[in-house]
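Dear Dr. H.,

I hope your travels went smoothly. While you were away I took the liberty of generating a structure for the chain from your last submission, since the lab meeting agenda had it listed for discussion. I wanted you to have the full record in hand beforehand rather than looking at slides cold. The sequence, exactly as received, is reproduced here:
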Amino acid sequence: MTSATAREFPERFKVRVLGRFRLTKGDIPISIPPRLRKPQELLQALIAFGGIEVGAGVLIDALWPDSEGDAAYHALESALYRLRQLLGARDAYSWRAARSA
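The corresponding predicted structure, in token form, is as follows:
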């Protein structure tokens, strides 16, 4: 999973991660309802793991450690979809196939 470049989304979102988590779009705070806990956790995990080229397996292990196979992968897809909806940015993150060794 790769994040969009700063040129594509110039200071569109700001994330405060030290202290209380806070997300803003421009200067407007984005309120994340409790029912969207997993998309928020996904965003936090993406940030914690560096935000660029974070593997799906790493995210699944961190957020759905008890889920297996397809169920875990679909949970990740669903959380990513809801995160994109929450941010109003369909292209904020993209999937890319892993390179073969």
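Two observations you may find useful: The chain has three helices and five strands. The chain has a mean pLDDT of 80.

With kind regards,
E. W.
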